[in-house]
Specification:
single chain, 6 strands
Length: 423
């Protein structure tokens, strides 16, 4: 079994790279990316109100309008990484190719052999133009190995341009998800507070679903065909047919603040004064805000888990080992909870990995309805804003959760069923 799980762990590597490179290429080639949006914002910012603005908007839509200077375009491309081939961009994002940072532009006019450049913190270097290319020297005349330099294209033939920069290996494999274009902060810093919210709802929903569905499935199996079984099936499948976000909107209308019954708050994760509350008041406030989102979060999984549990119990109750247990004089309670239940939870155990992957990734529609700044809402907004670092960071976490969840399903299956030995 150890060999099997080791093989599954090794298969995570090509699967992860395959999923990320596919999405990365699609994002980079899709129109309307961050570069186009930045150009539009700059051009729209230069317009004035009235007829001029209307005409300018029409020009932008048709692809016209005043063009940006070529230097500005090069700076934007360099900022978003579009000045490099797409495969190199992917390797930089992974952290397998050095990333340029702390860049400085240098210009040489005709006949100019050297120029001085302020590198910050009171340090100056001299950039020399030689027949072999460029050379960077310190103030004492020694070669500078800290900074690198490469030539840039220049529309003016009388001016030669170059870029002075540092390099470092920084990417996914080094724990750096990049910097958000929207928030101008490291992606991890943007995700951390929101990921905690989705973990809270995900784990809570996971536990509630199993705590409700397993006993309900057993009760339905033992009373198969009874009015209780029929009524509970109708309720469960009606709930299953309603999307969680739609049910959440209905609950807000009926039970949200200022509606028919002012029972629960109108969205939000916590009250604004939550930090100033006592410990007991914090618990009450958190539960007060979590009831409606939790119902919407878990309602979709009730039908699947309940039916799986019911069918599994019914199937196992007809097996020979159950009849043998009854023939030995064991009580019905012991036969069901000791013998039948363990084999009946096998299908449920194989479903655990998928549930974890879905719940921990966040549900952006439910978070939008309840105005909760969770992980799912962040990913959804990042797609709209073309915030590629957050989109790719969201993808990395979602893919890893899904892959690890599949392994957890196999492990749970082997734990509850000793007959299974993976090879």
């Amino acid at each position: 079994m150890a060999t099997y799980f080791l093989r599954r762990l090794l298969l995570l590597i090509p699967t992860f790279f395959g999923a990320t490179i596919l999405v990365f290429i699609i994002l980079q080639l899709a129109p309307g990316g961050p570069l186009e949006q930045s150009i539009r914002q700059i051009q729209m910012g230069g317009m004035t109100g009235g007829e001029g603005a209307s005409a300018g908007s029409s020009d932008l839509t048709s692809g016209g309008g005043a063009g940006l200077p070529e230097e500005a375009m090069e700076e934007l491309k360099r900022f978003y990484g579009f000045d490099k081939p797409i495969i190199q961009r992917y390797l930089i994002w992974l952290g397998l190719w050095p990333r340029e940072y702390e860049t400085r532009n240098v210009e040489f006019t005709a006949g100019q052999a050297e120029t001085k450049k302020n590198m910050g913190r009171g340090r100056w270097v001299t950039v020399k133009r030689t027949s072999a290319g460029f050379e960077i020297v310190n103030e004492d005349g020694t070669p500078n190995a800290e900074w690198l330099i490469r030539p840039l294209d220049s529309p003016d033939e009388s001016i030669e341009k170059a870029l002075v920069y540092k390099t470092k290996f920084s990417g996914i494999l080094t724990g750096d998800l990049g910097t958000s274009y929207t928030y101008m902060q490291p992606v991890l810093n943007v995700m951390k507070p929101r990921f905690k919210i989705s973990i809270f709802f995900g784990l809570s929903g996971f536990l509630i679903s199993y705590m409700v569905c397993i006993p309900l499935g057993i009760a339905k199996a033992l009373r198969h065909g009874s009015p209780f079984d029929l009524f509970s099936s109708v309720v469960v499948f009606i709930a299953y047919s309603i999307p969680g976000w739609a049910l959440g909107a209905v609950l807000l209308i009926l039970l949200g603040g200022g509606s028919f019954w002012d029972v629960f708050p109108l969205g939000g994760f916590r009250s604004d004064n939550w930090e100033y509350l006592s410990l007991w008041a914090k618990i009450i406030d958190q539960l007060y805000h979590a009831v409606l989102p939790m119902i919407a979060w878990t309602i979709g999984s009730f039908a699947t888990l309940t039916v799986l549990m019911k069918n599994s119990i019914i199937e196992n109750m007809s097996q020979d080992y159950i009849r043998t247990a009854f023939a030995k004089g064991l009580s019905e309670k012991r036969v069901i909870w000791i013998h039948a239940l363990r084999n009946s939870v096998i299908p449920i155990a194989s479903y655990i990995g998928n549930v974890i992957g879905v719940l921990l990734a966040g549900s952006y529609m439910i978070e939008l309805v309840f105005n909760i700044d969770g992980f799912g809402k962040l990913g959804y907004q990042a797609i709209l804003d073309r915030d590629y670092p957050i989109v790719m960071g969201f993808l990395v976490i979602a893919v890893l959760l899904r892959l690890i969840g599949n392994i957890l399903s196999d492990f749970a299956l082997a734990t509850v069923d000793p007959r299974i030995r993976f090879k």
